[in-house]
Design a protein that fits this description.
Two copies of one chain form a homodimer. With 553 residues, chain A is of the alpha/beta class. The first copy, chain A, has 19 helices and 19 strands. Chains A and B meet through strand 3, strand 4, helix 18, strand 18 and helix 19 of A and strand 3, strand 4, helix 18, strand 18 and helix 19 of B. Chains A, B: One of its GO terms (cellular component) is cytoplasmic side of plasma membrane.
């Protein structure tokens, strides 16, 4: 074994992964990382601006490229990255993979945990990089791309560590045959499937990429990371650290490569279709995701997280204000640009049950609108909760949503960000639609768009939410009810289309959040994606058990 | 919990499955099942001949059908089975599945183990049924369709029992937030994917079907079993027992249904393509198997065992006679109609190393031919080892093989079976081909056809065997070498294309055999099939983890 110093971290992660109670190897509080870390991280980010990114151990083959623009300043970051031809990436990855595959899973898990411990030292730099590529607030950037992403990576390491040790490496098999016995020496090997590609998205460039990367790596597969060309820096920092640690531990740094492309010459399809690519992890829109899934028919193993339309079912509540404040935050957080953000709110035409009787649909809608307005206009909360809009297409989508035919209850408008006057911002638009307006609420309107759908009753709400998840996919579902039978009905209906339900969330927890070591992220069972962070399938499909037998005289 | 009496069997099976040392819940010796069992089983089989099969709990919807013919007597069995329309099967299965899915995995595992304990009482009847549909010898019929199949089913139960308990059913999650904490009640459910279809083959109607059936059932999915129309009875007996036990335990017998069709109206495609079918297990030829795999693109989860071309690499041996006797048995056993039977024997032109120096290619070939002839003509061994040929197409394939262009060293000929004069039999044909004759040895010649391929040297043999497995699939590979370096090279090369290797088998163990609880059957990594009895993937792809969360005030 090469290094064993992280065995304790790995063992704790395996235990946490099973038990699924609260666990975090990497605390989400910035203060946990020392007094000097914030300034050091900010400085490192500033120094990288307008400079080539030279930290990778990959050779520059075809020049440098970079096109990142801060959603906060709307200015280019001016950072360039080495561009390498697909064939070069593939052959270097294949070569590096042989040494990596020969390691035991314990060695790989230890080296990979070491990479996380080293990435930790860059959490603040990665936070700035995430903020100025995705438009997330600084705090969300820190948590999502830092500790939360590292915990998701560790979760994948732990699951791999465990699954690859499901069967013994060697054993003696002896079959009694009466007067004699037959003896065989047997050995079992988890043979890695081959070179992997991880395709990143522009909104969560680290959180959504690390699980696939670490799942590939822990199971012995080399990996090529292909970030969105508008969100490279956050994951480039992580890849550079991984390469450094690989080299320090006698491994080939090309085991984990960064593949940078540009909007006018995207290489994703070329990479995915390369015959040497065995594994693909994808996060992004459904249209390209469906194409990636179709490559499963060409013998590739594919893991996707695509888009879904998330619902909230409002039946009855203990405290309507607490509920609507919670939901106002859910739809405002990062301006609805989370794949877990709710879009469709199914509310019965007779209203929502409260301890004081039914609150009518219009009153609930007005209260919700007011809660959103209050949050958005709160000088201490608004800009920080919303962050910025990653790209113009999302902004346009909010404008277009107003033309869809619903009743506009609240327009999406620019929100002043005191620190970044040029920030691309937009508050949530709230639109009332009837349950007959399928054409409107049956599509994902990614970004700050909230649809309030008036239904006949809660049974109708459940029926519509279920149908949405079954046909268009769903990653989350929120539900509010004080009635145990209704709760069971919602759970049964939504779970039957492989959608998890968060019941009665108020206070400082939101349905958008999926905690590592406890919540599965995406179930893999509906059109929102075919994979799940991190169930057994996410790991075991990346390798093949092969057993050899030798006759013993 | 309904019944718990089999917990000990389940626990032992889980342990055996992990440890992979020799284990059998159902002994393979016929004598283990009591003195009366053989006669009782024979009698039950005889009484069923020329009668409708009325033991199923399914309603006869569209009349009765049956077209089985004994390969031993070449007479129809005269047994008919209820024919039911696909839509009826599907809706009955869906309905039954709801109650079944609501059970705990422990309840399901106990009921399913009870079905195996009851199937055990029919081992001899199933043996006769298998013999007179597949052409296997009585002993192979008994072992393969009886104890070995039951053990494979128990293996699937055990893996399911374990994987579904990987995460807790309920837990309290508490996240410390400094002065307060956030509390959630969480629950995790392994939601079954839906109705399954298991498509059987004509040569191993029970052994190859039980794993998929029990994998579906233990994970909470109802299943429809679609046997080959020429080999219905063996699995019909098992399904009838399963339905009986289901009913005795308060379950809907339609949870496991038999779907019988006829050669002039096959329903397999209609069944597979039905939108309500979520899972498909298939054993059979590659062409239909590739079609079944293509249904993966339509959202179905597919498990296949197709055809492969299995190789033997002969490098060096301690005792050439012991080796060739072992291999002669391997190619003769059930007349090469096992998916694990070797077809291509790669032998260097310079011959095979022995303690007395190299034995030339021609001498090895002659010795092999003689070993086969001696076995075939041995009155105590020949007919019993070969069994009968399941269908005319296989017989024709042996005849055609003689026309392929190789050098005929031994013709396949009819072999006298003293007990069944009318038996359809054929001894192995042995054909020498050059390594340039790709067109001949690159296809699967299912049945008693042995190709001896003359190679430049062992490195060349390895290269060809590896390429065969990579391009055409392989389920097994035999190798003989006394050189540790060559052994490593063979293991590395074949394992890299996800093919297991059996080294230096002599005596009473053959490369064709894959033992439950120890050997994986098919790796799932090469074109011979995408699934493996029974790795984690064989189980975890049949359900989806879904978690619900409830906020605790």
């Amino acid at each position: 074994m090469l290094i064993t110093k992280h065995q304790n971290i790995i063992d704790n992660a395996v235990k946490a992964n099973h038990e699924r109670t609260f666990y975090a190897q990497y605390p989400e509080h910035p203060k946990a990382y020392g007094e000097e870390a914030p300034a050091k991280g900010g400085q490192a980010f500033k120094e990288q601006l307008n400079q080539p990114f030279t930290r990778l151990k990959q050779k520059v083959m075809e020049g440098m490229a970079g096109e990142e623009v801060s959603p906060y300043t709307q200015e280019p970051l001016g950072i360039t990255y080495p561009v390498i031809a697909v064939d070069e990436l593939v052959s270097a990855g294949k070569r590096a993979g042989e040494r990596w595959a020969a390691l035991s899973v314990a060695d790989r898990a230890n080296i990979l945990t070491e990479t996380l411990e080293k990435i930790k030292d860059h959490f603040f730099e990665i936070a700035h990089a995430t903020m100025h590529t995705t438009g997330q607030s600084f705090m969300m950037s820190f948590q999502a791309s830092g500790p939360h992403a590292n915990d998701r990576a560790l979760e994948a390491i732990a699951m791999g560590y465990q699954q690859l040790q499901h069967f013994p490496e060697k054993l003696n098999w002896e079959k009694p045959m009466g007067k004699f016995s037959i003896k065989l020496e047997k050995s079992f090997k988890a043979v890695p499937k081959g070179l992997g590609v991880v395709i990143g998205c522009s909104t969560f460039p680290v959180w959504n990429s690390l699980p696939g990367m670490y799942a590939d790596l822990v199971t012995g597969n080399p990996v090529i990371v292909k970030p969105h060309p508008k969100a490279v820096l956050p994951i480039a920092i992580a890849v550079a650290v991984i390469q450094q640690v690989l080299e320090e531990n006698g491994q080939d740094p090309y085991t984990c490569q960064l593949a940078v492309d540009s909007s006018d010459h995207l290489i994703t399809k070329e990479l995915c279709e390369h015959p040497q690519i065995a594994l693909i992890d994808y996060t992004g829109g459904s249209s390209f995701g469906n194409y990636v899934e179709s490559l499963g028919g060409r013998g590739k193993t594919v893991f996707t997280e695509k888009a879904g339309v998330n619902s909230v079912i409002l039946d009855s509540v203990k405290d309507i204000d607490a509920v609507l404040q919670n939901l106002a935050f859910s739809v405002s957080l990062y301006s609805g640009q989370m794949c877990t953000a709710p879009q469709n709110f199914f509310i019965p035409e007779s209203g929502v049950g409260t301890p004081d009787g039914k609150l009518g649909f219009n009153e609930v809608a007005a209260k919700f609108r007011d809660a959103i307005t209050a949050l958005v206009n709160n000088p201490k909360m608004g800009a920080g909760t919303l962050g910025a809009i990653q790209n113009e297409a999302t902004l346009q989508r909010v404008k277009d949503a107003a033309q869809l035919g619903g009743k506009i209850l609240l327009n999406g408008t620019a929100v002043v960000n005191e620190e970044y006057q040029a920030a691309r911002t937009c508050s949530p638009a709230v639109i009332e639609v009837s349950s007959a307006d399928h054409g409107i609420f049956e599509r994902e309107l990614f970004g700050p768009v909230v649809l309030l759908v008036k239904t006949k009753d809660t049974a109708h709400s459940i029926q519509l939410a279920r149908k949405m998840a079954e046909q268009h996919g769903a990653i989350t579902c929120g539900a509010y009810t004080t009635d145990e039978t209704v709760k069971d009905n919602i759970a049964t209906a939504m779970n039957s289309v492989f959608t998890p339900v968060s019941f009665n969330f108020t206070g400082f927890i939101w349905m958008n959040q999926h905690a590592a070591f406890s919540d599965f992220h995406v179930t893999g069972g509906n059109p929102a994606g075919n994979a799940s962070f991190t169930n057994q399938e996410f790991i075991v499909k990346r390798f093949v058990w092969v057993g050899n037998r030798t006759y013993v005289d």
